[in-house]
Amino acid sequence: MRIDGMTTIESEIPLPDDLEAAHRIIRELLETLRQQTHLNEKLQHQLEQLLRRLYGRKSEKLDPNQLLLFTREILEATGVEPEATPASKKPPAKGHGRKPLPAGLPRKRVVHDVPLEQRLCPDCGTERV
């Protein structure tokens, strides 16, 4: 006979003739059954939550900001004064692209002299700037 996934009880083991010992074994088995039932319900609940999160509708997902919608009314109903929340400052947006070069970086203008025959446009023959 198998009680749960890990415990097996052989049916050939003789039961005690003592009534008190039999009651003790029955209480132990009932406690084991209660624990296994509780574990089964807990795992079933976790499975349902995970499946709902994975396959549930997008509209069923909870936005944490929604929890704050009625806090003022709840606090007023309990008699606690709501604290004034300071206006939150937005952090400055990070720039895109390259950062500007440092102002202390030395700059040198380099002019490359290109011969006249390479400055002429191959299509129209005018000089390129």
Written account of the structure:
- Helices cover 38% and strands 0% of the residues.
- The protein is mainly α.
- It has helices at residues 19-55, 71-78, 116-119.
- The longest helix is centred in the N-terminal third of the chain and has 37 residues, at 19-55.
* Secondary-structure content class: mainly alpha
Tally the beta strands.
0
* Low-pLDDT segments: none
- The share of residues in extended strands comes to under 5%
Helix content: 25-40%
Looking at the structure, what is the overall shape?
elongated
How do the SSEs run, as a string of H and E?
A: HHH
Give the integer mean of the pLDDT values. 80
Report the sheet with the most strands, covering strand number, pairing sense and barrel closure: none
**Count of runs of 4 or more consecutive helical residues:** 3
Radius of gyration, in angstroms, nearest whole number = 39 Å
Distance between the termini: 96 Å
